[in-house]
Structure formats: C-alpha cells, structure tokens
Design goal:
Elements (H helix, E strand, L loop, with lengths): L1 H14 L4 H27 L13 E4 L5 H16 L14 E6 L1 H4 L6 H14 L3 E4 L5 H9 L37 E6 L2 H10 L4 H24 L7 H4 L16 H4 L3 E6 L2 H9 L8 H21 L2 E6 L5 H13 L25 H9 L11 E4 L6 H14 L2 E5 L2 E4 L5 E3 L12 E6 L4 E6 L2 E2 L3 H9 L4
Parallel strand pairs: 1-2, 2-3, 4-5, 5-6, 7-8
Antiparallel strand pairs: 3-8, 9-10, 9-11, 11-12, 12-13
Bound molecules: zinc ion (ZN).
The site of zinc ion (ZN) has 8 residues, from loops.
Length: 477
C-alpha cells in the first residue's frame, strides 16, 4: 500500500508543478504520516474495545525483518508510536496492546548490518515502554532452528505459547528433505499445569517414589487433553465459519456441516510446569539460583515422558512454562491446606513462575540469564526469559543484554517498573509517591509475566493479592 501511495502521490505532486526534490520530500512525509496514523489507530482500537468477557483482546504482533525501505519505515514507525505513548499532552503513557515482539536476525540486526537502525529503534522503545519483547531467530535452540533450516518464523501466540512443528506432507515428522513446517493458521487447545511441589510432598508423605506420583498426574493431564481433542473435534465447522470454512485456520476449508476433527491434528496441547524453584526448595532447601539440579532432572523426565505420549497418541503435546497470573497464589493455598507452611516453599503468598528464579534473589541480569538458560530447551511449548533493569532508562545496558540474549536464542523481555503521576504527568521508574507533587494518584505498568499489565490505575490496585505481593518483593525479576 505504501508503494501505491508513493506512486499516486508522486504523480499528483508532479502534476502540481513541484520540482523533483520537493516532490520526494512531500511524498515521504505523507507516507510517514499514514504509518503513524495507522499504528495510532490500532493502539486506540485494541486498548479501548473490550471483548465480551470485559477484557481487551490479547493481540501479539511480530515484526522487524522487512528489508524494503517501506517495510523498514513501517517497523521503525510502529516502535516510535509505541515509545511516544498515548493520552493528553504531558500525560502520555505507552499502551499495552498489541504486544510487540521484535524478530531478531543477527544477519539483519547485528552491528553494522542493514537493519541496525530498526534494532536501535527497538532498544529505544524497550527502554521507555518495556515492549518490544525480543525473539531470537539466529541463536541456539528450537525457534532459531526452524528459521535457520526452513526460513520459518515461529511467532509466539498470546504472551509465550510456541507451536511444535507440523509438516505440510509428513505431519509430525518431515516426509523428506523438501517437506516444510507450517506455523500460520494453527493454534493451541490449552494448558493444564502440574503442581510440582504438591506432587513431591505427596510422594514423601505416602512414602512412594516421586516419579510414580508424577506419572499419575502426567497421565491425568494426558487423558484430559485426549478428551479435549475429542470434544472439540465433534464441533461443526459452522460454529466459526471464518476459521473452519473460509481458511482462517490451516486446513479450514470444510463444509459448514462437517466436524472439525480433521484439522485438530495440527493443534498443540500443553503440559504446564511452574514453581520449579519451590520444587527444588522442597527437595533440598536450596533455590534454583543455589542449585537447580533436581528441578532440571525433573523437567528432563517430564520431557521424555511427554515425547513418549506424543508418539503413542499422535497428538502434538508441548511443555509450557506456566505464567501463573493467579495460579501463583492458588497453588500456595492448595499446598498449605494439605502440607502446611514450609520455608521457601509455601511461606509466601505466591510461588515462582515456570522455571524463573525467585524474584527476591539478588542476581545480576547476566547471572539470571545463565541460570534460567539451563531450562530453555526443555520448555519449547512456551517460555520467556527476562531481567530487571534497576537503572534509569539505561540504553547501553539494555542493548548489550538484549544482544547477549539473542546470541543465546532467548525470547527476552526488558523489565522496568514504569510509573506515571496522573496529577502532574511526572514519570519515573519504581515510584510510589510522586516526588514532584506528592501525589499517590499513580498509574503503574509492571510485567505480569510474558505480558505487561497495569498494576495500579489512578492509585488503585488492579491485580490479585498474591501477584501484588510478588511485585512488591521483586529484586532481580
Ligand atoms: Zn505528580
């Protein structure tokens, strides 16, 4: 469309008798304006139009690999619009949707490479708005391997779910060397999470091997997924014509009266894991930062088991590091009811998310990246790594840590505690009282886990108590 506007506007301004240099300048200014208004339009719509649940629709957009001059302009403008924020003059704040994910290719965005300016616009944007999150296409691990081998991009769905490969001809395995994986138009049917500390405590109390109790719960989740595939497969295509009849989903060219079972085989189903830190604490009183070996062995065991289920059932099971927005509190309540309060396990109102180190650990960002990197390739169905930047909007630190994460193959988030005074418009990281005017009427944006959320709006708390307790204790998060 930008190409078309360019052609049309060039003809128009030339017809008006302007010289070639002025024409070029005016045309490019108009196109930049189109992009700005377009992205602002998205931001207004996605952050004001609620769904029937009373929630905003969760939209994630991946971007940043286009090399044409208009593709670059689109990428940079999208980031600049997010960075500058929305709202009244002097009171602008970044919006939360769409979530923006920057697709990082070392050969395009590395130092001296053709899209280094797009990368820099991204770093500047992250330093003000936390987003974009950064997805490595050229480091190590699963997502980069699909890009390097097939040129295929595995975009996260929602905050962090990644699809397992499905091949055009061979299905779960490639039919031959030319077979290609498909990642567009597919989806996940849901995650069921293991309560690992509870499973370990149960095994101890009943004097049974941990793996025996774990197997029982893995089988339980497996059965739930099999039922969900069967249940959804009975739906008629007419329940969502755009998805199932008009090609919205991969293979979605069914007749309205057809059942959707045939296209369910490309959908993934997830086994969620969370509270690995508390599992390790329960095992030997050490945290993931102090040890982590038992948590690693357990996660490896779960991977082997799920791979076996996948081959036996022909379903695309995946392992997902659960974000646990409210589950982080629910799991503690469940645990306390049966096993009481145990130090490091259930003595706080929340458990740690997925394989993350405890938020109170005093770690450098580099230590945290390395500690969590141990679990990276054992959670391919959903994961994110992030580090907190206590320093004030420090571009240098953000740039070098993002590059480090990209070399490792991570999906990396930049964590700041953004705070805005709703009275005078002052903004500062991590403030609870405005230093300029003394107001407590603040809006704060924190990372929930894989996505950002308002923790306060005009002074009032927005999140559940367990999550607020976690946010209050964050050090190296
Ligand atoms: Zn103020």
């Amino acid at each position: 469309y930008a190409e078309r506007s360019y052609k049309m506007l060039t003809e128009k301004y030339t017809r008006l008798g302007l010289d070639a240099d002025t024409v070029e300048k005016e045309v490019m200014a108009d196109i930049l304006n189109d992009f700005e208004q377009g992205f602002q339009g998205w931001e207004y719509k996605f952050n004001t139009v609620a769904s029937s649940r009373g929630d905003y629709p969760f939209i994630t957009m991946t971007m940043g690999t286009g090399t044409g001059r208009f593709a670059k302009l689109a990428s940079i403008t999208m980031l600049n619009v997010r960075r500058k924020g929305q709202g009244k003059k002097g009171q602008k704040k970044p919006v939360l949707f769409p979530k923006i994910v920057f697709l990082y290719d070392e050969n395009l965005h590395g130092p001296g490479k053709p899209l280094e300016d797009v990368f820099e616009a991204g770093i500047l944007c992250s330093s003000r708005a936390m987003y974009p999150d950064w997805l490595s296409l050229t480091g190590e691990g699963y997502v980069p391997s699909m890009y390097k081998k097939y040129g295929a991009i595995v975009s996260p769905m929602g905050c962090r779910a990644f699809l397992s490969p499905w091949f055009e001809r061979g299905g779960m395995k490639p039919a031959d060397e030319d077979d290609k994986p498909v990642f567009v138009g597919r989806w996940n049917i849901g995650a069921v999470s293991l309560h690992l500390p509870m499973i370990y405590a149960k095994a101890q109390q009943e004097n049974r091997p941990f793996h025996e109790v774990l197997d029982y719960y893995l089988e339980l989740i497996r059965k739930l997924h099999i039922r969900t595939y069967a249940y959804l497969g009975e739906m008629r295509a007419s329940t969502n014509p755009l998805a199932y009849c008009e090609g919205g989903f991969y293979g979605g060219h069914l007749k309205p009266s057809d059942k959707i079972k045939p296209i369910m085989k490309t959908a993934t189903a997830s086994f969620g894991i969370t509270a690995l830190n508390e599992l390790q604490e329960l095992y030997n009183g050490k945290s993931l930062a102090e040890d982590g070996q038992f948590a690693l062995e357990t996660l490896q065991y779960i991977n082997d088991k799920v791979e076996q289920f996948k081959n036996e059932d022909g379903n695309l099971y995946a392992i997902y590091g659960t974000p646990a927005e409210s589950l982080c509190g629910l799991q503690v309540e469940q645990f306390r009811k049966k096993y009481g309060i145990i130090e490091g396990v259930s003595d706080r109102p929340y458990v740690s998310n997925s394989f993350h180190c405890h938020v109170t650990e005093d770690l450098t960002p580099i230590q945290k990246q390395d500690l969590e990197g141990r679990f990276w390739n054992l959670c391919n169905g959903g994961k994110i790594q992030y580090v907190k930047y206590p320093i004030d909007y420090n571009h240098e630190a953000i740039r070098s840590l993002v590059r480090r994460a990209m070399a490792k193959g991570f999906y990396e988030g930049v964590n700041l505690s953004l705070a805005y005074c709703d009275d005078c418009g002052h903004e500062e990281l991590s403030m609870d009282v405005c230093p300029k005017c003394g107001s407590r009427n603040l809006t704060k944006i924190e990372r929930m886990n894989g996505y950002l959320s308002y923790s306060r709006v005009k002074g009032d708390t927005r999140l559940n108590d367990a999550k607020m307790a976690e946010i209050a204790e964050r050090k190296s998060m």
